[in-house]
Amino acid sequence: MTVVVQKYGGSSVADVEKIRAVAERVMRTKHAGHGVVVVVSAMGDTTDELLALAKRVSANPDRRELDMLLSAGERISMALLSMAIRELGGDAISFTGSQSGIITNDRHVDARIIEVRPFRVQDELSRGRVVVVAGYQGVSYRREVTTLGRGGSDTTAVAMAAALDAEYCEICSDVDGVYTADPRVVADARRIGTLSYEETQELAESGAKVLNAQAVEFAKGAGIAIYARATASALPGSDPSADGTVVRKDAPRTPGSVVGVASERDVFVLQSASDATELVGWLDARGVVGKQLQSTAFGAPGDGVTLVISRENLHDEGRLRKDIDQSYGAAASLVDGIGAVSVVGAGINASYGNLLRGTKALRDAGITPQALSTSSFRITWIVPRESVDEAVRALHSALVIADVPRLP
Fold it and tell me: Does residue 226 sit in the same domain as residue 356?
């Protein structure tokens, strides 16, 4: 019997009727002859509501207590979905992250999975049961409840798929795959049929919300195919890329092609002339992770650092600002009001063509980039926050829609 792992996001389990629809889809998968493990997110906006509740009690809530609070959302979803499957005549059992064997490091709010011990899941699958797992959460080696950060249910699903040697992992949401840009921002954004692991990871790191970067990392390591699909879609057929996006090892694309544009609006920049190694160590001790770090001579006398920080998992920004001011004073500053816009594709920087065309498109749109960084799969421009959407549209038009000459 092959095992299939399905993950359903918060919008897919937002109310009782949607939970019933998911239960019906799960049962169709079961009747097709698969062993089924289902990973669920919290219902609708439950996580945001719990976080808002915490902020009403404390402006800078303790990270451990946040994990205790936020992990409750997925437990509600898993129990309700298990009940719904039973109402349809199925046999289901729900597990928390710790019960399903998700072992993480000792960080709170943005923990990383270090091991999966799916013994209880395997036992229940062998009994013919559908196993429903609470996503986004695990247990540290110190037996502390931890959460995996935004999009962490994807990571739970793919890590579980890898541990179970699943046939594939299906990530179901209210959109039918990964698009060349956010369709809410770019009207002519197109669904991408196939993506490589590297392209998908770069898109996720750059702000695309369909898949989680650490989840793709697990999939790449285990060679697990990810199917990003709409919850309302049929079960995957012989060509799952026909009505969704397939993430796999290789994607048939000309090197140098721009596959998509992603953006992140809620970032700020830490600039400091202080010793870079000391400052980075100071941030690491406080659980602050940067997205892009620049230093002219890291660790050398007179170095200094510029670090782009995402607010996504930073729930105690007020405390961070206060601590930076007390510890570094005028030697460090936080620059706000900015966003990051990225274009992604294999071999995107094999020449400077994409960088030059993208920068020209931004300037033609009246946007002056404030900073630039690149990798082998990505070009990122830092722009004013109010210009992020316009920058996405300009780059999409110039580098995705336009008939740009490609490298041979």
Answer: no
